[in-house]
Amino acid sequence: MVYSMLLGASICLPIVGANVAIGEDAPEEKPSIKAVMKACFKGPLVKKVVAGKASDDEKKELHAMLVAMSETKPPRGSDESWQKLNKALRDASEKMLDGDAAAANLLNKAANCKACHSEHKPK
């Protein structure tokens, strides 16, 4: 009888454990540089934030996407340049979250496409 119970438990426990693992939330994947470009720069997000028409959630989304982009490896060009350009974007978006009045101008200046694309955009 004890042997049967142990055998049953040894079969059921891995199955229960597998179900619990499947039910857990998977870590969220960071957006690619291409996704950030599409949503933030080609899409309306940066323009909306700079114009002061973005909601707090949109500002948070922009900041999160810019932080995620800064944590990626540049497709080409130096890491130093990549970090410098992304730091300007991150800092401006963070100031925007903090309600800094000058942040819109800083974000508009940091979102200069040519500054980043000339060195880092893949050909």
From TrEMBL:
Q: Which GO terms describe its biological process?
A: electron transport chain
What GO molecular function annotation could you give as one example from this UniProt entry? Answer: heme binding
> What InterPro entries does its record include?
Cyt_c/b562
Name of the protein in question: Cytochrome C
Q: What is the lineage of its organism?
A: Bacteria, Pseudomonadati, Planctomycetota, Planctomycetia, Pirellulales
